[in-house]
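ARCHIVE CARD
SHELF: 3
SLOT: left
DATA:
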Amino acid sequence: MKRPSVVRLSPVLILLGIALLTCSCARHAPTAPDNALRAQSAASSASASLSAHAARVTAGGTLEGDIGPGAHYVISVPETWNGDLVLYAHGYTAPIFPVGVPPGEEVLVEGMRTIASQGGFAFAYSNYSQTGLGLKDAALRTDQLANIFGSLVGKPRRTFLIGASFGGLVALKLVETHPERYAGLLTLCGMIGGVQPEVDYVSNVRALFDYFYPGVLPGNVLKLPANFDLQNDLVIPVATAIQTNPVPALEMSQVTQTPIPFSNGTQLVQSIIQALVLQAVELQDLLNRTHGQSFFDNTRTVYTGNLPPELLADLNAHVVRYSEGPAAANLFEKEYGPSGDLRVPLVSLHTSLDPVVPIFHEDLYRSLVEAHGGTANLHQTRVERYGHLNFTAEELVGGFGQMIAAAATP
């Protein structure tokens, strides 16, 4: 086994740079149009009926409003509208942040809006009304936005979806559920394999970190102390432990159940911390959604990998085991898993070394689509790069264009 060089990372920079659980872009506030119109809308049902005071938006205008409690939306229509609409589903917003587009993703939202607008497409997105893994709410708010657009602008000729990170699963659920409503989908580092594989990945990283670095982190996979602090209780001690002894971190990466993405020592540390941060910030939200029951099960897991047999035997004998509760199993099966029944074109862009939503999501979804015989609609592009949502402008333009080209002629 090749011993990695010891890396010296600033824990503060790690926290600021990767613990936001969003894209690799720097945080940037979107530029508001000079003459933006603001209106309130109310939604008492999935039809998202509008307030009598909602204003119509015309070509070259932007309108903002609210869908029910807290779900803010933005609609932009270019000067020369081609009649098509693009709905954007944003990524995971950690419960430590307010409801809204995740910090750091504003740049991507604005970039995709610009790409769509320059092609003559209208563009709209919603903040959702929940943080965490509120998949049902996110899909509902995005679907309602299409109805609001029809009322304020007019019925679009075609509707496309773009989903980033967790938003990729949001958009995919809409496409699989209502294929007749959408002409195509572009996912960007999408969680298209489902929530269960993502939860299993970060939970396994936590369980194995506790085995390889015992006593470094407080609590466990299912419990953290009430006064838990991300920087002082996770980022700093994890970075220090790996810097002091990097060999166990490399051994973790060789376990099949923890395919930690990295190509050098710095990326290895970043990816481990990223997974541990994601597991920690989502813990309480998951427990709330499973009524306090365990959401992770490794009782029958046989950990395998490119490690000496004696080490694997010791790992399997001594790693802490957890048993999933029935509420969690039911939740993941019914609400958080894709079916693979893909009836419209899906173009995916995914970085090969994604520390947030690992590339294995692409393989998992392809397997589901193959089982349904719909691979003709699946167009996957692997971008050889480290980072989450770390794409060039040219790659984003190319992905958008591929989605449009793959869509059926209206």
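SLOT: right
DATA:
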Amino acid sequence: MEKAGKSKNEAGAALAAGAPKQPAHEARAMAQGKRYGEAVKRLVVEQIEGGKLTLAQARRQHGIAGAQTIRGWQAKYGKAGGGVRRASTLAAAQEEIAKLRREKAELEHALARSTVKAIVLESALEEAEAQYGEDFKKKFGPGLSSVRAGGSARKG
């Protein structure tokens, strides 16, 4: 015997799963996977945590396919999942980003100064080589670092 075009197995499976009868367009939307905005997610979590709806009622009322979807929202936006702390965490993250941007700008500025200094020194060295007819890079290259350390650049 069949009821309303469904076999006993199909009807029994639907009843065993506790699935209410849904219009075809809702079933297709759930099968394709819906996307929910943050406002809807927060509303659902607030309704459940406030005791206005149970998880099952929220699923039916908002057309949400799985309970796991809502549990994920609760973990992200709910009080137990850190939803209250999320605003302070966001503010701290924004402060950290601002601090890192300032540090980055300072480092870029220091790099630019060092690059200009290296170019100026390179130009001065080339000018001195041209004026004295010496290749100072070859002659004093390895010993130049000892000048900075307080030693002598000349050997001998």
